[in-house]
Amino acid sequence: MAARTKYRKRALDILFESESRGLAADGTLADRLEVNDPPVNPYTVGLVEGVAAHAAQIDALLEEHSHAWSLDRMPAVDRNLLRIGVYEILWAEDVPDPVAISEAVELARELSTDESPKFINGLLSKVAEVKPQALRAAEQASAEEPVADGAAGPDAAGDREDG
C-alpha cells in the first residue's frame, strides 16, 4: 500500500470515529495526535482538517449530485471516503483529480460494499466535472459566512476580486 493511501485510510478512520461519536469531522483528531499510536502523518492531519473546514460545502455538493441517495442513506465509510475525495479534488492542489478518485475507489473496494466503488467513482467523477463551479460556489459561501467579533468581511471595503 502506497504511503498516501495509508494516510488516506488513517484519515478515513479518524473521520469515521468522529462521526460515530457524534463529533465534528475533526473531533477525534486531537486524541489521535496525543496518543500518536500509530503516528498520525501530516498528510492525514491535512485531510481531516480540510474536510472539517469545508464540511458544509462538501456535504452540500455531495447531496446535490448523489441522485436519490441522501448522505444519511450512504454507508458511513462511503460518506467519509466521498468527503476525503471531494476535499482532494477541490482543495488539494498537489493531487490530480483522477488520483483522488482512484484512491477513494480502491479504499471503497477494500473497505465497503460491492456497489460502493462504482457509486463513489461516479459521484467523484461528477464532482471533478463541475469543479470550477463548485469552487466558485465554495468561495462565495465562505465570503458570505458571518465574520466573528463584528469585523468586516471580504466585501465590506468593496475590493473583492471576482475571478
Automatic annotation (TrEMBL):
<comment type="similarity">
    <text>Belongs to the NusB family.</text>
</comment>
<dbReference type="GO" id="GO:0003723">
    <property type="term" value="F:RNA binding"/>
</dbReference>
<dbReference type="GO" id="GO:0005829">
    <property type="term" value="C:cytosol"/>
</dbReference>
<dbReference type="Pfam" id="PF01029">
    <property type="entry name" value="NusB"/>
</dbReference>
<keyword id="KW-0694">RNA-binding</keyword>
<dbReference type="InterPro" id="IPR006027">
    <property type="entry name" value="NusB_RsmB_TIM44"/>
</dbReference>
<protein>
    <recommendedName>
        <fullName>Transcription antitermination protein NusB</fullName>
    </recommendedName>
</protein>
<feature type="domain" description="NusB/RsmB/TIM44">
    <location>
        <begin position="6"/>
        <end position="128"/>
    </location>
</feature>
<feature type="region of interest" description="Disordered">
    <location>
        <begin position="134"/>
        <end position="163"/>
    </location>
</feature>
<dbReference type="GO" id="GO:0006353">
    <property type="term" value="P:DNA-templated transcription termination"/>
</dbReference>
<dbReference type="GO" id="GO:0031564">
    <property type="term" value="P:transcription antitermination"/>
</dbReference>
<keyword id="KW-0889">Transcription antitermination</keyword>
<comment type="function">
    <text>Involved in transcription antitermination. Required for transcription of ribosomal RNA (rRNA) genes. Binds specifically to the boxA antiterminator sequence of the ribosomal RNA (rrn) operons.</text>
</comment>
<dbReference type="InterPro" id="IPR035926">
    <property type="entry name" value="NusB-like_sf"/>
</dbReference>
<dbReference type="InterPro" id="IPR011605">
    <property type="entry name" value="NusB_fam"/>
</dbReference>
<keyword id="KW-0805">Transcription regulation</keyword>
<keyword id="KW-0804">Transcription</keyword>
